[in-house]
Amino acid sequence: MRANVGRLVAAGVAIVIATAFVTATLLSTSLIERTAYNAILTAYPNADVIATQGILTPDVLEQVRATSGVAGADGRYRASVVLNAGGQSDYQMAAPTPQTSELRLQLADGTYPDGPGEIVISEPIAERLDARAGSTLDIEVDVWTSDDTWERQTETVTVSGIFPDPGAAFDADLPGVFAEQGDLNRWSGIPDDAEPTYHLLMAVAEPGTSAGELRRSLEPLLRENGSVVRTADEYAEAVTADFTADTYLLAAVLMGFGAVAMFAAGMVISNTFAVLVAQRTRQLALLRCVGATRKQVRRGVLAEAATLGIGASVLGIATGISLAQATLAILGRVFDVTWLPTGVPVPMFAAIIPLVVGTLVTILAALSPARAATQVAPLAALRPSVPPACRSRASARRMLVTAGLLLAGGALLAVGVVFTTYGGDVSAGLIVGMAGGAVSFLGVIVGAVVIIPPVVAAVGRVLARQGGVPARIAAVNAMRHPRRTASTAAALLIGVTLVAMMSVGAASAQATLDDELDERYAVDVSVGDEPFGVSEPGMAVPTPLQPQVVDAATTVAGISTAVPLHGAHAEVATPHATGLVVSVLGVDPGAARGVVRAEEELAALAPGTAVVPETLVSELGVEDGGTMTLAVNGRSAEFDVQVARFPEYAVIVTGDDLMSLAPDAELNRLWMALDPSADPETVIREIQNSISQVASTDTAVPVLGAAAERSEISRVLDTMLAVVTALLAVAVLIALIGVSNTLSLSVIERTRESATMRALGLTRRQLRSMLAIEGMIVAGVGALVGIALGAVYGWLGTLTTLGTVWDTTLTVPWPRLGVILLVAVLAGLVASVLPGRRAAKAAPVAALAAE
């Protein structure tokens, strides 16, 4: 190993990266759990015992307070309130201020309420409403009146204090407002002679009483009410377990990527040891001549592998821990919160598993080269070196196994797609499809020596015609060792396949969801009450849009088109239904088609025609091509019915038809289209803010649309794709190390050959070009095959996942796939730089004399 340390570096680096990846994955799960645990407890400061469920009344609370060992206890229940200030509003949950000081959150400013009419709010609310301690806010609540009805009332309250946002995103129990219990009872609609029911109780133990002892003291009392009693730690663990169910799934996915990284590292190690054994043929033969047995030779090779595996794995574990700690330190600076752990917890298994796995992968990768080493005959030391054969054929057994795996995997993939497309269980279809993908991909890996060499030969022939002598020699060299070339390209193929699969799958999912959103939400943004669809007579008339609301909405920057709609309630008479009332919207057909995304759904809108959404067909008892009669205040008209997949819960007619039917119909809805360059979330937020400043205080104007949802889905998919691509880049990096390692070893193996070509007139530049082209051929072929496989897997995955719900739109993100191919080819070029320099430095005469 000391003599060949330079040749083992690449293999060692591959296993370091892979074990660091696995270590970081294991630590991330533990870190997420600890972070969630700390974040949950911020909602219950200093609580020792938490009781949930059951019937928790003020009487039960008083009994808890009277229990021995209890220093203080409080209950928590909530009421919904709307806070208003300066034209801005915020919907929040309010809870009673704890009477026990230990159970109060620490305030960043001000004090807790001293009496009625005072509240404490969180910092995000204060920022949103531009409030501070001493500010006044209007609070809107639905109050239960003496007439047994709900009535919206507005009160003015004073902000007495502000508490910092604890960031308890893992537990939504922490309210944004604390108020006196009397105020909260009134806002909750609790009569004066009634008592609230708490959804949880918190208790603090007296000094000298542990949380466990307090829990045991309170259990007999609280369990009679059907409550679950836990210590604060136990409660946090329970909530964390619910939250981290997806985390374990994430960990499983990450470990899958870690397995891919380990597999790629194993291929690099196997290639390295195979070349080392081939280069040491004479040395091994001489050892056999002086008495070394086959077992000793095999043990020697495996001992080298074990030493390399242990050393590289230890270094990888240290690297993974350092990366996790560095990430935590960065997060601590970016997010100024108290619940982030100060250090990364390192459980024993997070160190043992990567060490064992890294060492085993290295040893397993060296088994085949070790077996080849034992087959070296002692007399081989006395024979002249024989150059390797230029071609070797794959065995018939390998070809049969490859064909069988590909056929079986393809059949399973087809079954998964058909199963889900025709209404089967999605989970079962996914399991079958994933099994098919794994089996077929295994077939590709097993048959790499069958699949990749022909592609390499085809690419080599093309380059040989254009690249001169270096390209022709590079093409021949790439085919001299089909097994090694296939193994090297296969390592890159793994990562590229997964990256391409995620890219194609995400693009297809995005296109499918865009089409679905176009049908589900007809326009980018709609302002006004949504139609109620079909109902019994007596339904309230939709709230008309005030002129200032229309002006405020349509003058926001980023709106390209705005179309007004008038609405009315009409009685329906159809061959199968009478006595019903339906919402009717009137719109100009030409203007509507310019703002509606699914234009074809309104193609039939014309005078005398009513477009009926599919969702209302059964309720109205109509059919496509039939007729229906609409009547408003004694006026009636018959319309031809055209059924459309339109997402409005209303019958749509032309504006002129509606006005002739209901002359008093008022404008109660706007359809708006956004500029393609506008940010949907920003525009919709500006519309909401602009409307809230001009609308009447007792009027809430809904602002809905597909633009924000489409933007959010795109962001989620892009983020997911970026994360997955970054994770898979580890496997690609390892594979590129393998390309560089293979080229480096082939340079050493072909020392005399390179010297002979130099002696025959090949320049140093041409020699470097030859190796560069060879590296690009290997990397490019691996990327091409990986992109092709990834596209197929991405399409089939989209069909399996979404086919049972929507009509899928399969697409290919050509620019992204082109970047993947370009990066792979450039990486192959970079990987050839050092081997090329090493080969070009050797003097022809010295190289010819080398053994």
From TrEMBL:
Keywords: Cell membrane, Membrane, Transmembrane, Transmembrane helix
Membrane topology value: Multi-pass membrane protein
Superkingdom as given in the UniProt entry: Bacteria
Domain named MacB-like periplasmic core: residues: 9-220
Spans traversing the lipid bilayer: 248-278, 301-324, 344-367, 399-419, 431-464, 485-507, 720-748, 769-796, 816-834
Pfam families xrefs: FtsX (PF02687), MacB_PCD (PF12704)
Family label: Belongs to the ABC-4 integral membrane protein family.
Record-given protein name: FtsX-like permease family protein
